[in-house]
Amino acid sequence: xxxxxxxxxxxxxxxxxxxxxxxxLTDLDNVIGDGDHGINMARGFSEVExxxxxxxxxxxxxxxxxxxxxxxxxxxxxxxxxxxxxFMKAGMAIGAKEEIDINDFLSALETGIEGVKARGRxxxxxxxxxxxxxxxxxxxxxxxxxxxxxxxxxxxxxxAAQEGVEATKPMVATKGRASYLGERSVGHQDPGATSFTxxxxxxxxxx
Length: 207
Known about the structure:
- The chain is an all-alpha fold.
- It has helices at 4-20, 22-32, 37-50, 52-55, 60-74, 79-94, 102-120, 130-145, 150-168, 191-206; strands at residues 2-3, 99-100.
């Protein structure tokens, strides 16, 4: 089981990995987007980290909803609303629980993904973060159904997300700023799919 303290530790790790990969993500976004994905994500999670002492005293649903609201208000471009929606929806799915298990996590992720789909009016195959999120969720569900332990479940999710990032390279972008490039977006990986994979990796390491 994972409690509020552990969730906050994971959020701090997420802030660190976004800061460490700020330039990398921005370089990816320079090619097919606004060139600010890494900067925005690092700023947003830095604001989340500043709230750590307050967040640790709250239930997990409230923590996630607060993270979502912070990302919406602090992260520019499409990433803020999309990631913010994902965290807020996940928080609503968790509710007032003080501890969660792998089943709760997958349920929250699934609800978050549905929120991203609705907010972005998008689905898989459009060169977005969903191309890492959906395969990761599917892989983790399959591992869990096969009786795997949580560590193996998360490892399968990270691998599927990484493969999802690779799969965005030959895709033609049809959403967001990248869609303006049309065929010229081919050959470049999606920054949002990449940042999601980095975040999921931190969850896997922590648990």
